[in-house]
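Support reply, case 0932

Customer input (verbatim):
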Amino acid sequence: MIDYSEKRDFIRMPVDCPVSIRELAADLDEPAQLLDLSAGGVRFIGSRALDAGARLQLTLRPEHPITPPLAAEIAVVRCHEIEDGFDIAASIEMVEPAVYEDV
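Our regenerated output:
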C-alpha cells in the first residue's frame, strides 16, 4: 500500500509547460506557466493577481501531436505573490471535449 503524505483526492503531476488563460467574460488570452496538474485541479504562474472564485478558461496545447489539447473551465482557489508573478491554484470545474486542429 502506498502512503501518500498529501491527503488529496488525486495525485498531482509536475508539468512545466506554457498555457493560456482567459477570464470567461473576456476575449483576450494571457500566457501562464503550468506547474502541476491533477484530475481535480491545476497550479500555474500568472502575471497578475486573480481573486478566489474567479472563473477562467485554461487551454493547454502540447508540443507533441500525439497528446490531445486540454481546455478546461477552472475556478481560482488561492493566489499569492511570488518573485516572478503570482502562484495560482485552481480547481477544474469542467473539461471541454478535445478539439483537434489540422497541422
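We compared this against your earlier run and they match. Two observations from our side: The chain is about 0% helix and 55% strand. The beta strands are 13-23, 30-37, 41-46, 55-60, 70-82, 85-96. Please reopen the case if you see a mismatch on your end.
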